[in-house]
Design goal:
single chain, 11 strands
């Protein structure tokens, strides 16, 4: 998806959902890092594709959404904690509008606190973001970098690698599926692909079928972020009512951060007309993140995991957290369902289902057999 040429553009449903997800996550991220036994004195929020800060109908852009979160929790800043905001935008007209929108939102909250710095940089993310973070003195503070790239191959893995080297830092990357699929079509994309994936392993996509390509590239990109220094990587897709998709990948060094991002995902308002999909689900089922979600993909994933060997309930919860779009609380009812259907068994067979109970695939059961019942 090319970057729109107009100064402002329409805020589609999955953009609204994406911003709600960003807001909910930052509401957890900000206080976690600024209070408690391991609190930091300063954190940094950065965007590599900041945009104009507003949409055609007046909806706030992501930099404004983030600033609203920080300013609504101003008590941290008034208590001496600091936040750096680093905003990179390549288009001069949009950058000028962004300054105005940021000025308006900070004015509504009483101005920019002394303990907040907001720095603007004109340039391409690939060339400008890391020098901007360094100039802002941010490379020694936890960083949350939002890299909403409009689907282009313009986020070198070197950016993620440098941010991962800063303790307690995270990246949140978005791109369209076309970005993933285009790599299998032309040699002209080789250099860009090598930069984005941090190597040439993604090139194997050319030998795959159309059905296999996206899943392979998603897994390869996740592995690239792992290799860059993010041990925990979450990926999922947003799809609006028109079938337009947006792929999101979150990388963190924090187990707690992963839990909070999962919590934020499952709280995004389903009324916005956006569904979700786990890109690694072979059936590509759409999920509504509701109180009673469709757990068929989780059932299949747990059966496949148990096919590798025995697991405890706690290990299955950890697997769901790290390797699926589901949350640990979804696991227990699914395990109970599989037990009732005779798909799995526990040892010992009697007693309450608890975290340390060993669970295994039932004899004569395969992960593919009747997995989506």
């Amino acid at each position: 998806m090319p970057t729109p040429k107009a100064p402002l553009w329409h805020c589609d449903p999955h953009t609204q959902a994406k911003h709600e997800l960003l807001r909910r996550y930052l509401e957890a991220w900000f206080p976690i890092l600024l209070q408690g036994a391991r609190a930091r004195e300063c954190v940094t929020y950065a965007e590599g594709f900041a945009g104009p800060g507003v949409y055609q109908a007046g909806e706030p852009g992501s930099p404004v959404v983030a600033l609203q979160v920080f300013l609504r929790q101003r008590h941290f800043l008034d208590a001496g904690k600091r936040v750096n905001v680093v905003l990179v935008e390549d288009d001069a007209t949009r950058l000028e509008r962004l300054r105005k929108e940021v000025g308006d939102v900070t004015a509504r909250y009483g101005g920019v606190p002394d303990s907040m710095s907001i720095e603007y940089y004109k340039g391409k993310c690939a060339d400008t973001l890391l020098p901007a973070l360094d100039a802002a003195g941010a490379m020694n503070t936890p960083i949350f970098a939002f890299l909403d790239s409009w689907g282009g191959p313009d986020i070198p893995l070197d950016i993620a690698r440098a941010i991962a080297a800063v303790p307690s830092s995270e990246v949140f990357v978005t791109f369209g599926t076309r970005f993933l699929l285009q790599f299998g079509k032309a040699e002209a994309h080789q250099a860009a692909g090598d930069r984005a994936f941090g190597g040439t392993s993604w090139r194997k996509v050319r030998g795959l079928t159309s059905r296999e390509k996206k899943s392979f590239l998603v897994s390869t990109y996740r592995e690239s972020l792992n290799a860059a220094g993010f041990p925990y990587v979450l990926s999922f897709e947003m799809l609006d009512e028109g079938g337009h998709d947006l792929h999101l990948v979150y990388g963190t060094t924090s187990h707690k951060g992963l839990e909070k991002m999962k919590d934020a995902i499952w709280k995004v308002d389903p009324i916005r007309g956006v569904n979700y999909r786990d890109p690694r689900d072979p059936d590509q089922l759409l999920l509504e993140f509701s109180l009673d979600p469709d757990t068929r993909p989780l059932r299949r994933a747990l059966l496949e995991e148990l096919a590798k060997g025995e697991r405890t309930l706690e290990q299955l919860k950890e697997f769901a957290l790290l390797e699926t779009v589901y949350r640990p609380p979804h696991v227990t009812p699914v395990v109970k369902h599989l037990l009732e259907r005779g798909k799995i068994e526990r040892d010992p067979a009697r007693g309450q289902l608890s975290g340390d109970k060993v669970i295994r695939l039932a004899s004569k059961e395969t992960p593919e057999a009747d997995a989506l019942f």
